[in-house]
Specification:
With 146 residues, the chain is an alpha+beta fold. Helices cover 21% and strands 32% of the residues. It has four helices and seven strands. Strands 3, 4, 5, 6 and 7 form a five-stranded antiparallel beta sheet that branches. A two-stranded parallel sheet has the order 1-2.
Length: 146
């Protein structure tokens, strides 16, 4: 449930996803890269981002909206026409790390990458804070952008 909330927040913040049935996600998590500098992040959030890379693991469908498509990267990378024809006109896809959470401080960090057909791709860390029981984006840091 926790990762579902965090992933949904990231996807919802992406204005490039026009239709929920076009959500395509790599079915295996990606490793969170080693962190660089995080401006204005809490000490707890920086510590989460700087942990050793986690192992990749399968992501289950319950972490995403029912209309999302989980697929192997080999089926979604590189051929945008095939991606669009297979996944309801999709023009982008996401890959997510597993969430790192500090329950004591109410901080969480997720790394994601979004690849877009029109070249608007990004790799970004997202810092979340739990406020009144809900997770809110407290900060972001690009790893790369195109």
């Amino acid at each position: 449930r926790l990762e579902a909330d965090l992933y949904r927040t990231i996807v919802t913040a992406s204005r490039r996803l026009r239709e929920p049935s076009q959500l395509v996600v790599e079915e295996v998590s990606i490793p969170m890269p080693q962190a660089a500098r995080f401006r204005e992040w809490s000490v707890a959030a920086v510590a989460l981002a700087e942990q050793e890379p986690s192992r990749c693991s399968a992501l289950s469908a319950d972490r995403f909206p029912a209309t999302a498509h989980l697929a192997p990267v080999a089926e979604i990378a590189g051929d945008w026409d095939r991606l669009a024809s297979r996944f309801n006109g999709a023009r982008l896809w996401f890959a997510f790390s597993r969430a790192r959470v500090d329950d004591a401080t109410g901080d969480a960090v997720v790394y994601y990458e979004r690849q877009c057909r029109d070249g608007c791709s990004i790799g970004e860390w997202v810092w979340f804070r739990r406020e009144a029981g809900a997770w809110r984006i407290a900060g972001t840091q690009w790893n790369w952008i195109q």
